[in-house]
Design a protein that fits this description.
With 470 residues, the chain is mainly α. The chain has 18 helices and twelve strands. It is elongated. 34% of the residues are buried. Keywords: Aminoacyl-tRNA synthetase, ATP-binding, Cytoplasm, Ligase, Nucleotide-binding, Protein biosynthesis.
Length: 470
Amino acid sequence: MSVVTRFAPSPTGYLHIGGARTALFNWLYARRHNGKFLLRIEDTDRERSTDDAVEKIYEGLNWLGLDWDGDAVSQFDRRERHAEVAQQLLDEGKAYYCYCTPEELTEMREKARAQGRTVAYDRRWRDSDATPPEGVKPVVRLKAPLEGETVIEDSVQGDVKVSNDKIDDMILLRGDGTPTYMLAVVVDDHDMGVTHAIRGDDHLTNAFRQKVIYDAMGWETPQFAHIPLIHGSDGKKLSKRHGALAASSYRDEGFLPEAMCNYLLRLGWGRGDEEFIPRDKAIEWFDLDGIGKAPARFDTAKLTALNFDYIRQSDDARLAELVLPLMKAELGEKFNSEGESWLVAGMPGLKERAKTLLELAESASFYMRALPFTYNDKALKLMNKGNAKELLAQFVASLDTVSDWTQENLENAAKSLAEKQEVGLGKIAQPIRVALTGSTVSPSVFEVMAVLGHDETVRRLTSEPENQGE
């Protein structure tokens, strides 16, 4: 059997964390088994579905690297096919028209509630010979089994059963002829050849009703796998108080997509003590039996720590490519496009200190900032204190003696000057740092000098800032 999975989001907003994890699990399972991962946009709710939301779903999946096979399917575009299946069930006597008014349905619900019953609709039109009332557009209801039980063989939850007297004669087509979610999902999954439906366990109750439709049509039911939902670090349902809910928010906050996928994979799935799981290993190892039954807890601190690890192991040129747009937006006219080679060369020292791409862009911006610099208050105070400028000038003069421009030789030149002036190395290194970067915080100043080269180093060390201070 060729594996076919699907991700079927509703385009009513952004791609949220839970949806992203569901998509990831479906993608990994399909890729592991050399199958297909399909995308279906469940846009039958025309009032809430928007083109912008569809684009955000595409954007989120593309950012995470979850490519789908073939074109995305619009559920709304398949409404005629859904109606066709409903008509087939009518023709076979497995469905019927129901003419109940809203008032009658309300009365039934209240009665069922008073009697402690789950099923509200009393099936009055199921086998009725009554003359249909005028002016009422009927809905189409499925004839659910009245006896026995419906069993879902779930890859995560195990065998789950429900007595059929708890399943109502669900509506398949509304009075205006539009299909309900229950019908559309079953028809689409069947027609798309879906073999495994991996989704949140909030859909488990839907699975019983959907299986009734599968059975009525004589179709094979896909293998269900209902995964527990994601909770916040406090164990409560994930909400905005726990942090951002949109996958795109984490992209904008400077998280790498591979770090996010790794973290989402570990939310509810595990393989021993493995924490750092690159994409190729995730495909090789992922299977449904590794999914736990307990809700996973989303912890932003753990995600951040994992992102830090991924940044440190990432390719320098790729990191530079990712942070350049951020720095260009931040620096504006002060952006120096000629600094890209310095940025890439200096990346090994920069990425050891950054937890996110935003932090990396901020700490690396001095490589891309055009002269003259504008010093912050702390940098100004340091440069105007004591003989800082004099020591800086002496250090610049000493650079003529450095024949081999290496980090070690540059540090030795600074140490030699410090001994000669009988001051600590920091008294020289800090003014150098401010002149090179415009800040009092940076990677090793000698590392920065080695990256910038002789000419740019001297240019920066001898350049006056835009703001001189007092």
